[in-house]
Amino acid sequence: MGCNNRCGFSACGCLGVVLSVVFGAVIGVLFAFLYIPAITTVAWMAFGLSVLVLIFTLAAVYLGGLYSHTALARCLCRNTACLLVGTIGTLITSIAALAIVLNPASIAVSALVALGAFFFALMIIALVAFIQCIICKICCRQEPIQEC
Predict the structure, then answer these.
(1) Is residue 116 a contact partner of residue 100, using CB atoms and an 8 Å limit?
(2) Exposure pattern of 102-139 as b/e (b: 16+ CB <10 Å)?
(3) By C-alpha distance, which of 8, 6, 11 is closest to 127?
(4) What does pTM read for this prediction?
């Protein structure tokens, strides 16, 4: 297996989106059946992680702009859109979840929790894909790196 074949994972591809949808649906159902009692704590953790990932992404974009021919800049071209969608979606849904009473009897609240879980899973998968891309590009410098 060549180096470029290992660098081919993208969070916005079929696998990342399907895993996020499945994760969101499972969390929404578990919340609706009262299997996640500490959902407010989970919403606070999702909010905090999304803020950290947003700061990390903004710092990476700044550094990638300064040094445009690095592995960081090339991986930003490939993964930033999906990472920002997951991060901003997690941020917005966690703020919405913290602003209301999370009653599992409401279908709208269960849908909000499922949507938040979808964005959270997408954010984590995109972050892992971004870091994996950087590591792969750094470790495989002998092979040519494709432009954005």
Answers:
(1) no
(2) bebeeeebbebbbbbbbbbbbbbbbbebbebbbebbee
(3) 11
(4) 0.87
Q: At what angle do helices 71-99 and 39-66 cross, to 10 degrees?
A: 150
Distance between CA atoms of residues 79 and 91, nearest Å: 18
Residues with Cβ within 8 Å of residue 9, at least 6 apart in sequence: 15, 129, 132, 133
**d(C-alpha 74, C-alpha 25), whole Å:** 33
Identify whether the C-beta of residue 9 lies closer than 8 Å to the C-beta of residue 145.
Answer: no
pLDDT of residue 140: 77
* pLDDT tens string 26-72: 999 999 999 998 999 999 999 999 999 999 999 999 998 888 888 88
